[in-house]
Amino acid sequence: MPGNPNPSQTPRSTSIAGVLIQKLDWYSDQRGSLSVLLRSDQTELNGEQFGQAYLTTVRPGVIKAWHRHQRQTDRMVGINGQTLLVLVDGRADSPSYGTVLETVLGERHHSLVRIPAGVWHGLKCLGERESMVLNLPDLAYDLDQPDEQRAPAHQAPEQGLPSYDWSRRDG
After folding, report:
1. Exposed, middle or buried: residue 113 (CB in 10 Å: 0-12, 13-18, 19+)?
2. What is the pTM of this model?
3. 102 is a domain residue
4. Which of 42, 49, 51, 171 could join 140 via S-S bond, C-beta 3.0 to 4.6 A?
5. What does the alpha-carbon distance between residue 22 and residue 142 come to, in Å, rounded to a whole number?
6. Beta strands at 20-23 and 74-80: parallel, antiparallel or unpaired
């Protein structure tokens, strides 16, 4: 396929330390389209190792939250539909501790988000059809010792952190 479908910009920093967003590009021609999601030479996004790749779906109006890892870094990109990704920095030693960040993944929002260990995250489907998110974490899931902590969606993920209002906001 002629042309360069690789990301044309470097990842941008966000209000949460270590969270990066890589705007992704598409190359399209008569045959279809191609987008490079992650390259091994993107060291700021790639990390030191590859763990696994998996897809998760979110049904309309459903909230999958809260979730964080102690060791694992997630890298998420929306595939189908539109998904609200909300992050809360739960790392006590972080300069952005307690900061909340919202971003939309999926159609018309083609980007990859790097989520460091210790940052709480949750997903909400924004459309009327199931949305799909690809995750490329740096560690494989360990069934015997899962690296995950969960908290209820409609409460602060932990003591001292802000709660998040998942209701739709019109403006």
Report:
1. buried
2. 0.89
3. yes
4. 51
5. 28
6. unpaired
**Ramachandran sector of residue 132 (left: φ over 0; alpha: ψ -120 to 50; beta: rest):** beta
H-only helix segments in 23-87: 43-46
Contact (Cβ atoms closer than 8 angstroms) between residue 108 and residue 40:
no
Give the CATH number of the domain where residue 76 resides: 2.60.120.10
Per-residue pLDDT tens digits for 151-169: 999 999 999 999 999 998 8
Q: Give the whole-angstrom CA distance, residue 51 versus residue 8.
A: 26
Look up tokens 């989520």; give the residue.
115
CA distance 148 to 87: 15
pLDDT in tens, 123-147: 999 999 999 999 999 999 999 999 9
